[in-house]
Amino acid sequence: MKLLIVLHHRFDLWNAPDWVAERLREEFANLEVVHLKSFDHIEPELADAEVLITWSLRPEQVRVGKKLRWIHSPAAAVHGLMIPEIVNSDIVVTNASEIHGRVVAEHAIALMLTCAKRLVRATDYQRQKIWSQQKLWEERPRPRELRGATLGIVGFGAIGREVARLAAAFGMRVLACREHPERGSAQTDAVYGFSELPAMLSDCDFVVLAAPLTSKTQACFNAAMFAAMKPEAYFINVSRGALVNEEDMIAALRSRKIGGAALDVFTTEPLPVESPLWEMANVIITPHSAAMTENLWDRHYALIAENLRRYKSGEPLLGVVDKKRGY
Known about the structure:
Distance between the termini: 27 Å
Order of helices and strands: EHEHEHEHEHHHEHEEHEHEHEEH
Strand order of the largest sheet: 8-7-6-9-10-11-12
Strand content: 5-15%
CATH superfamily of the largest domain: NAD(P)-binding Rossmann-like Domain
């Protein structure tokens, strides 16, 4: 059996270290492992690959990979694999949403605390050697506490569920919006469907966007959604930039229709230097770093190895994506 790893990204951490392929060869007898550092020569290697680790494929590449039975994405998002040639095939797609969930949720909570306690603004004053106690209290939104505040989570997968758990520990009231509200959640105070999202937003002091990118969620956060939010509420995005109409968000921030935003993802990445978001006082920017951790590839390896054992023994795989839904 042949396993092909093809990952190429400008950011080093997203690329598989050499030891991943080496350890797989050692642990799994009769497994041929090929590790490519770019997509330049993928077609010849795809021809006889049964298992593929990658983020995306083009239609012609899928057609070359006639023996492909399983594709694993070491990301939570799988929109780069949701093309008709894969969706309409028997190829199983798995993702690493459970790997990223806890780490990204921690980042979301950190951003929420940073907004609530006005830490960035305090740091700005620190650099100016200004004792800002009175200024921080006079500015809006004022510093606040998480306990008793209402958090709305849009998307209730691995990230959303962990954000809910952590927020509950702070004593927050937690609301969730998910595609299937009838499934409910013991971790939340109420669950809404996407058609009810504006009503949920109107009740929230903080909103965390953690939904997958699909055809239904593309640019789903638009002017109407920002208009539904409280004027001192904070918007936090740790999912994908394409879920947000960035122009509408900038307009809402400029007009103070919302209190502020903490953003880890953007429509274009890296965020262009000409973007007005860089200079907005009510915006916190992190460079798509929510999933960063030194333990990342150890966790990836554990999942890949476990699923390889399951695959070889015919057991159900972990993290299987519903290709029709796109997550």
